[in-house]
Amino acid sequence: MTMTTGASALRSQYNRDAVLSASPVRLLTMLYDRLMLDLGRAEAAQQSQDWATATENLLHAQAIVSELSSSLRVDLWEGGEGLLAIYNYVANSLINANIHRDVARTRESIELLEPLRRSWHEAAESLPAAPASGRAAAGTLGIG
Fold first, then answer.
1. Which of the four, 13, 61, 112, 144, has the lowest number of CB atoms within 10 Å?
2. pTM for the whole structure
3. CATH of 23-140, one of 3.30.70.141, 3.40.50.300, 1.10.10.10, 1.20.120.340
4. Interval 66-98: pLDDT, tens
5. pLDDT tens profile 129-138
6. How many CA within 13 A on the CB side of residue 26?
């Protein structure tokens, strides 16, 4: 194994461990961070007409939005229905951004989701230290 391969394997293991040990609230912020990374990469790839890279990142972003939608518990807070509507709108926009190679739809999705990412990070930071299971804190955000 080369040094680069070894470092890559260690980084992958660290990332896996971080995800497996994260609380539901931390997982949510991690998903948003990765979603925004994918969208930024997709937008850059679309602008440079690197359609394979754009497609790869848009598909991964769609998978994250799907996960966010399926894990959202709209019955726990009154803003749940509105958030679900945003997720559905963004999911459709990402599909169209990919099919039509439309960087404007990717940009619009970034503009819609970035304030949500910041808000979830702020909400997570304002919570008291999570209990061992992390479930009580997650429930207060309508996830988990």
1. 13
2. 0.78
3. 1.20.120.340
4. 999 999 999 998 999 999 999 999 999 999 999
5. 655 544 444 4
6. 12
